[in-house]
Design a protein that fits this description.
- The protein is mostly helical and 112 residues long.
- It has two domains: 68 residues, Multidrug-efflux Transporter Regulator, Chain: A, Domain 2, CATH 1.10.1660.10; 30 residues.
- It comes from Fictibacillus halophilus.
Length: 112
């Protein structure tokens, strides 16, 4: 997906300083969550991290969970499951559509 087609919330244009101000997290905390593979900022040619509004929302969610005592590996596992849900829903929807079509095809064949 090109930058122009990227939803504004997902555009990686925000510096770590602004992210820190918006979230209340320190630079070190933000980098730690990156090290733990919870967020994935882009890097400029000079190595500067750039974040999106979606990253900021995710960081706030991570910080809240950490305050509640949730470990980073648990957060990562939960995030992975959340990411897989749309694919599972798609498969389920296709299965239901197939059953629905088969049901009506069988009923139509029996009445013909």
């Amino acid at each position: 997906m090109s930058f122009e087609n990227t939803p504004y919330k997902d555009k990686k244009v925000i510096s770590i300083g602004i992210v820190s101000e918006l979230t209340g997290l320190t630079f070190r905390q933000i980098r730690y969550y990156e090290e733990r593979k919870l967020i994935f900022p882009e890097r400029t040619e000079k190595g500067t991290r750039k974040y999106s509004f979606s990253d900021i929302e995710k960081l706030v969610e991570i910080a809240n969970k950490r305050e509640d005592g949730v470990q980073t590996h648990e957060i990562r596992t939960e995030m992975k499951k959340e990411k897989e849900k749309p694919a599972e829903k798609s498969v389920l929807k296709e299965m239901l559509r197939g059953q629905f079509n088969a049901h009506f095809k069988n009923n139509h064949d029996q009445t013909s």
